[in-house]
Amino acid sequence: MNAFMKLVTDAAFWPHLYTSFIEVGAAFALSVVFGVLAAILLDRNEAVNEVVAPYIAAFNSMPRIALGPIFILWFGIGISSKIVLATSLGFFIILMSTYAGLRNVDRDMLLMSRLYGASNAKLFWFVRLPWALPSVFAGLKLTLIYCMSGAVIGEMIAAQSGLGLLLQTYSGQFDIASVLAVMLILIIVVVILTAIIDAAERRLLSWSKGSTNIPG
Predict the structure, then answer these.
(1) In the 3-class helix/strand/coil scheme, how is 86-123 assigned residue by residue?
(2) Domain range list for the chain
(3) Which of 69, 86, 71 has its CA nearest to residue 27?
(4) Using CA atoms, how far apart are residues 31 and 37, in angstroms rounded to an integer?
(5) Is pTM, for the whole model, over 0.85?
């Protein structure tokens, strides 16, 4: 606890936290936007899905953490390389969870909606998307964790600032108390951000309970 209080009261600590927060936030936003859009594209276009799916599986199987030094070589030791590394981890999580949610809609509900004359657009907005929301939010939480891990690991490889740099520095000094203090900070940040996602999930799922009532 003394190491934790010493860390958070040190003015030099906050720029490191800010750097990591920016990297994780940017990677999370990029992962969610492009991951959800890619999942919708694959879901709506079978031809594209058949062509692209094997490449997605192949790239997802690659150990991106091991490619961290390559990303740093390509994009430098600034925040860009950490954002790319973290996004490469988070993108596939939200892509797969969203795609799975869109594909696992109850067939009877889809059939009933079609019998009532629902168009493909209405099926998506009022049936498939609300049904997929729990899977999407589960993916969001995992995406956050993977983005955080990617950013921190990238900072540990090479960085000018960030919590990963602090972890690497304290580990090199065998300062276990400070290492644990930084890890506690990471846990607190993830818990707070996860709580925000949970609050948004409760609100949207509450709204979506009646959203399958397709307007005429």
Answers:
(1) HHHHHHHHHHHHHHHHHHCCCHHHHHHHHHCCCCHHHH
(2) 2-208
(3) 86
(4) 10
(5) yes
